[in-house]
Amino acid sequence: MKFDIKKIESKISEKLQKKIDTKTKPLGSLGELENIALKTGCIQNTINPKLINPHILVFAGDHGIAQEGVSAYPAEVTPQMVLNFINGGAAINVFCEQNQMNLTVIDSGVNYDFDKNITLEHLKINKGTKNFLIEPAMSGEELNLAVERGAKLIEKINQAGCNVAGFGEMGIGNTTSAAAVMSVLTGLPVHECAGKGTGLSGEGLKHKINVIEKSIQARNAKTSDAFEVMRILGGFEMAMMMGAMLKAAELKMILLIDGFISSSVFLAANKVYPEILDYAVFCHQSDENGHGNLLKYLNAEPLLKLNMRLGEGTGCALAYPVIQSAILFLNEMASFESAGVSNRD
Q: What residues are paired with 122 via a beta bridge?
């Protein structure tokens, strides 16, 4: 599936910078808030950007690789947590309500038959991926369908007025998939990509690293084709998120990138369309081992570092008030001229 993502070379950046610099503050004193304000204004091509109908998307899917004992939790936790999201009991529910953000939960490929009447986007590709130690995680047709459905989902919320989307996930085994994808696409050794996930012991982590290394070798996954790497080693929730991220950038939305899994998906999207980096705000640095290395690889500066490793899009929801503050200071803070305050010159 092709996307039309344009690199942002906004002619308005000079006007934005002047507006930022003439606020009643020392130059650069609002630090990263100034960078967010500039980026958002350039994305929207205006000196008065707005955040409209912010939306967190939580993609859920099961992973065949979980059969290899790479997670501290059993696979049935995936559908259980999806139902917890639906019932409003998870951390992401609390933080979205706190910050008045919309939340959509998507069944991308959970190994469970959900009631069709519950508030869930029923976009299941299959009941979990294959075990990529033994065979590719998904077929080409499944990959394409996941990417397409993710793109269409973003179109739907964009048409409803949303211009800022956060990307979260749920899926037992998905830190294993994310680490495998990261290792292949960055060239970093697996031990610099894999972490304890849901809370593995030291021996459990060694086993996880060994499984990933064997899988990459068995699948001969040494390609630079990010879609192919996603097909071989990814998850349905990851592939669908990839399509959603790419479409969001095409529609000039602001992308809020959550933790390790979301960043690994973003890495894949970035390999296909480097221009997507212009639209992304990296919300936090996860405590998952590989996330710091991945952010360095992307040359990305996270807004928060709270030692979290939960997923669900929680980092996006927690960082959103910071992003709001960046837009508010740009639009509502007085300038030296309007306030009658003497500038340093």
A: 107
Q: How far is CA 262 from CA 45, 77, 108, 210, 246, in A?
A: 26, 19, 15, 23, 13
Give the residue-averaged pLDDT of 273-282. Answer: 98
- Which pTM does this prediction carry? 0.97
Which structure tokens are listed for 333?
């803070």
CB count in 10 Å sphere of residue 231 = 25
User: pLDDT tens digits for 186-219?
Assistant: 999 999 999 998 889 999 999 999 999 999 999 9
- Give the pairing of strands 164-170 and 121-122: unpaired
User: Could you tell me how many residues make up the chain?
Assistant: 345
State both tokens at 287.
């405590």
**In which band, very low, low, confident or very high, does the pLDDT at 345 lie, cut at 50, 70 and 90?**
low
Domains by residue range for the chain, with CATH: 57-311 (3.40.50.10210)
CB-based contacts of 326, cutoff 8 Å, min separation 6 = 30, 33, 34, 36, 37, 40
| 141 has catalytic annotation | no
Which residue in 155, 312, 332, 337 is the catalytic one? Answer: 312
Which has the closest alpha carbon to 256: 46, 56, 66? 56
Average pLDDT in the chain: 96
Cα(52)–Cα(100) distance, integer angstroms: 11
Burial class (CB in 10 A: 0-12, 13-18, 19+), 242: buried
From 303, 252, 327, select the one nearest 7 (Cα to Cα).
Answer: 252
Angle, CA 92 vertex, CA 258 and CA 226 arms, to 5°: 30
